[in-house]
Fold these 2 entries.
Entry 1:
Amino acid sequence: MSDQAQNLRRVLEHKDRESPKKTRVISVVSGKGGVGKSNFSVNAGIGLAQKGYKTALFDLDIGMANVDILLGLQTSGDIVDMIENDRSIWDIMETGPGGLHIAAGGSGLNDIFEMTPEKKERFSRQMAMLDGVFDYILFDMGAGADRDSFHFILSSHEVIIVTTPEPTSITDAYAVIKHLHLRAPDLGCSILVNRSETSKEGKQTGENLQRAAKRFLKKDVDLLAALPQDKHVLQAVKKQEPFLLAFPYTPASKALQTCLERVAGRKNAESDTGSYKQFIGRLKEFLLKGGGR
Ligand SMILES: Nc1ncnc2c1ncn2[C@@H]1O[C@H](COP(=O)(O)OP(=O)(O)O)[C@@H](O)[C@H]1O
Ligand SMILES: [Mg+2]
């Protein structure tokens, strides 16, 4: 194990031996690509870490993994490495900006979800080692939810569906909600509208989607937040820095902070949405047997 991994393990294990964390696993998904999932995941992770929550981000958009690029991070390992070369999860996780712990995606594997049973077992075993370590684990997923990636999403405690106000993005987001609802009616879903021109547009987009889910699926979907279109997001991407740290007082950062208050408030309010062990149980069930929730 590298020095970095040993340090990380020590940091993570030290304080929590007596009070293990009740981890909430949140998948960030969308129907359409390029709607802002990775930027949201990275900055939300940093914001939660800044609030004192121990937070990890897993880049599960394997093949198109880019969290390390967004953060300008040189990583010494990644999820593909962990699966292919049987490396420890402690070895591949890096401490990124703002104290966010990062598992980069890596390349060379087109689809993490087409793993052999042995590799799936490896993956679940490594994930199980994180029991009690984090307050939040965020999964930054690829677009769409029709592959096996679906299993990771369905195993989570909660799903955030990101959409922009574009009609194509909204219809794709609805399709994802429907898909998830049919497989896991009890899975908590919330909508994040990104890149809205005005707060009114953001609210209306979210409410329309919410209404459609209620009317056609009888599903209650929470409207988490609307983040504005903000030129500082692209500027931060170009600088390979998270916008929350590079431009903390701009509209996107301010809206994200309000959004995170809600996310954190929810964790405190809903302390009983299933344990980490239940998450691991579902993940194994899905990955190894194709069953589950
Ligand atoms: N709130 C925003 N305001 C302006 N541009 C944004 C915003 N969110 C995302 N973007 C732009 O969209 C691009 C794609 O975002 P990304 O997070 O990579 O999407 P995804 O992970 O869904 O594919 C970013 O590089 C950025 O330029
Ligand atoms: Mg992405």
Entry 2:
Amino acid sequence: MESNSDVDLDPNKDDLPLRANTNHILVRHYVLDLTVHFERKVIGGSIVLFLEPAIGSCKQGEPGSVSKTEVQNGSQVSSKHDLSSPITPEPNELIPSEEPSCLSGGNDVSDVFWGDESEEFNLVLDCCDLMVSKVEEVDVTTVSNLKELLVDHRYANADHLSSSLVQRLVSMPSVCWRSQHELYLQCSRSPTVLNAQPLRFHMDQWSLQVRKEGVCSSHDFPSAVRIWYETKPTGGSVRWTKDQDSRCCVYTMGSPINNRALFPCQEPPVAMSTWQACVRAPCDYIVLMSGENQAIPKPAETGFLQWDYYVTMPMPASTFTIAVGKWLEAGVNVPNFEVEKTDETCVKVLSADQQYVCSHMDYPCRFMLSAARTQTVIPHRVFAPPCHLQKAKDMILPLLPLCMTAAHSLLGVHPFSRLDVLIVPSGFSSLGMASPHIMFLSQSVLTGERNLCGARLCHEIAHSWFGLAIGARDWTEEWISEGFATYLEDALWNHVQKLGYREAEEQRRLKALLRWRRLSDELQNSEVELQVLRPNKENTGEVSESGASLVKHALNPEKPFMQVHYLKGYFLLKFLADQVGEEKFLHFFKVFVGKFHGQLILSQDFLQMLLDTFPAMSSRGIRLETIFSDWLDTPETPEWLRDSCSEWSQTPVVQEVREEVAKWIHFSGSGGKGSKRKRSGPKVNFKELSPEQLVLLLEFLLEEPKLSLSTLRLLQTTYNLQAQDAEVKHRWCELAVKHKHTAAYRDVELFLIHDQAMGVYLYGELMVQEDARQQALARRCLSFIKDDMDQSARSVVEEMIL
Ligand SMILES: [Zn+2]
């Protein structure tokens, strides 16, 4: 059931459409009321949207429909309007389509009767893979407490009573957030408007469109709308799977389509909203979610428990995350010290050393709470399936407070009040994912020494500031989130390890070299277009008249496995840090966070403030335009980067690796051929290396055309490679594949099964040598795990294998 406007939209095409007309109307709050049905693999119930006409949206004769051109061309036809500038309506030359005067039931309207040229106002929501059964106008006038808000009679226009009430509700001051949420809840449970027909709606592949008969302006559109719907078992962003102990679970997957298959919403990041959710799940399951509160489940209908969560900080709907499963909590080792946002603390006079001035819209901000400002560690819990519980407890629980303290010390106030960490099922396609109040971690970080896990925790924790509290206004600027988190990962992890200046600098250089090698490898093996951080160049951040846009390359199947936004973004920040000095640069981050938290940014917001703060940079020729042209708008590698990598190679920790590599090559070349004579053991003394050094050592050895069998055997025993972290194991598997080291094929198999977040390209390496045994291994592993695999990983692997 696709509308005509979708005919030219190829689902496999690169770009992801964001269709919500956020320039006309905005969702300010969502109330979700959902039940999780494991037997049917469906989440169903209702969502109530509290809507407000956007500032600047025209009052009458507004052409509200999504036109074909608008969706196809996205930002190319974008106007220069932003949310705050008024939009002049185009002369309305559209001919109204013939529509039936009365539609029985008001259910989904067929293509024929929907009429893209209708003059009626269209509420366009982003969604896919949902079954919507009914859309209705909620009668908020039945909520008596709400009417008390209308002390001013100017609002009491009978025709617009409902929208006046919702307007008052959404604009209640943040000090009253508790009563506001209570009112939202009461409103969401109100009946439909008496004698009113359900609202007409229409679905196509990427959107749900809603109209009210005769209503032509967003200002006359119902301000509280309830949508009854169910998700689909195969919905693109809701993953029904089994945990590592073979027990059912479901979680949202985020990127690239975010929550579209979970609930209809406004996807463009400018649509920042708050939400509350009541989720019912069978008694033996736990519900983890983006919510400020640690929900205490209440008995619901027979066999079900109800979990209530809420947030008071407006955020893009894409950041909402939920996971439901039979996970266990890995012990608690920190007392609960949640900071209460009471009305009193909110208005407290702030101390003189207060360094933050909130520029965001009004919400109960932690940056303004003195108790929150001094909180170095926020309340946290760790959840895992039983088979990983002990490892999660041993590895993550001791690290979390250390990483949080480091983050607090470098970045300031934790933007969120608490954190749950979940070890997600093995099919999760990355090492970690940060969302408000909840972090997904791959089981791959649980093995080896603590370096990989610690650095990953630091990376995800950094996202609380960069990615969540400060988001990208245009999703093509992924580097704003990933480049920053990658850069901060080193700074935070060095802080945790209490490294001295020299040691920290050496670590930074070693990491930089490793990342440079990865980036240059990726640049050689991926499409040029995907290597540009700002593919829309100066048009970045622009949207069409309605607010719709396209996210460049977001649907490209290769995209989720590309690291260019992480790596090139990180190098840009490293380049800038080199100009002003690491310490000053990190201090600038803190100041930047103070100014921009709670807001969405474009690259220039950060860069301009940096250039203004350090004027000496421009005298050295570093200007906004040169940063754009050298770093963000080109697939080329900046000169600085090419020059720097030779410098990083000279660093002592790298030299140490080179010396070891030379020993190994010598060993391999001179008789280490596995002859009986050598059984007595090697005479070579190999130095102990850190996990990062080990990665580099194996990478250098990977460049060798030939390594003897005994060298590979000795490598394995010298460094106990099977017990190392997943990054080391990955290189070891590559070596084993390259040299057809059959004794290590079991290691390769285990890696492909247990480290799915990292093994995708190993399948390609197994296929490329056209070795029957290797190809059989790849096929065997794929068939063993394909049902649990992440969909995009599976399609990439199947492409390589079939
Ligand atoms: Zn604030």
